[in-house]
Amino acid sequence: MSSEVAQGLWKDWRLHALVLLIVIVTEAIGTFSFSIGPGVVLLLPMLYALIIGLILYFTPVVKEKQSKNAEPIIVLGVALLLAKIGVIIGPSLPQIIEAGPALLLQELGNLGTIFLALPVAIWLGLKRESIGMTHSVAREPNVGLIMDKYGISSPEGRGVMAVYIFGTVFGAVFMGLIAGFLATLTPLDPLSFAMASGIGSGSMMAAASGSLIAAFPEMETQIVAFAGASNLLSLSTGLYISIFIGLPLTEKMYALMTRRRNRKNPEVAEDEEKVITK
Prior knowledge:
This protein has helices spanning 3-10, 13-29, 45-57, 64-89, 93-98, 101-105, 112-123, 129-134, 140-149, 155-185, 190-196, 202-215, 220-257, 259-264, 266-277, and strands at 32-36, 39-43. By secondary structure, the chain is mainly α. The longest helix is centred in the last third of the chain and has 38 residues, at 220-257.
């Protein structure tokens, strides 16, 4: 980023004023939760901010200049989140070791998105966007990884941001409902669902653990402890799982699954090769 462009970003007072206004409004609204059967739906300020920002984008208040300037600032915001995660990892190593093999191995469960979602994405006709969409659960560390390797404007970048936004809007609602219903309708231990709720997202963990606590109030302390430890592990190890296993595995599976399609459409294969080598 050139110095002129950087100065232009910070001098865009309209963009910063809008962001500040959205933050003030959403924080003033606060958090709301309500129950649907054994499930709990949690509505957080981040959800309101996303919806308000989306609405403003289609009004004269936000011009093309603000939408362009916001793009690189997203990268800076993700970088700050990754720095925070890095600070968490060091002091938390003793807790991670004490958590035991069950919690340590639960992060491998996030690789299920590759085997379940990637074939569906390719079947639906998605191209390299499917790599960003399915290599992980697409939370902040994964967004940072894809941005660093491919760039925010790449097909992979668009894919991971699409799932990140979708997860922000529907993730907490889905986790809150599914955790409560499954914990009460299946014979599995509620603590197993507490462990499963820690996927690296604070809002999703809070929604899922809230449902479990509502269904099993006598286990509140244990549920909070297991969910917190699980979420901490996902934040600490999830990025490394994505770097060394998730993303390379997704790339390999994508190449294998699209080999036949690329043989039939040489132009598509050539375009994708350009994206890879760019």
